[in-house]
Amino acid sequence: MGYAKGNKVISLAMESSGLLVAAKMSLVVGTILNCINQSECLFALDFEQLQVGKFLITYTVPFFVSLYTSTIFKLRHNTQ
User: Fold this and answer.
1) Distance between CA 80 and CA 54 in Å, rounded?
2) Do residues 27 and 56 lie in contact, with contact meaning Cβ atoms separated by under 8 Å?
3) Residues 36 and 28 sit within 8 Å (Cβ to Cβ)
4) CA gap 41, 46 in Å, rounded
5) What is the pLDDT of residue 63?
6) What is the pTM of this model?
7) Which residue has the higher pLDDT, 9 or 73?
8) What is the DSSP letter of 27?
């Protein structure tokens, strides 16, 4: 990937519309996954047993997957 194309990828990824969609997707999907994966801790309000790293990654992964997907779509369809 050339320097110019790398800059285009970064600028497309940092557009506010893509970031907002990624944040919303992360909140929805991350919350559902955390409820599934750590339901015992969350529903019992037993935050001492909550695995914080796992909790945070469960929100981070959907954010980056959504951001990656929207960026690739924009690159392939030449929309900005």
Assistant:
1) 34
2) no
3) no
4) 5
5) 95
6) 0.77
7) 73
8) H
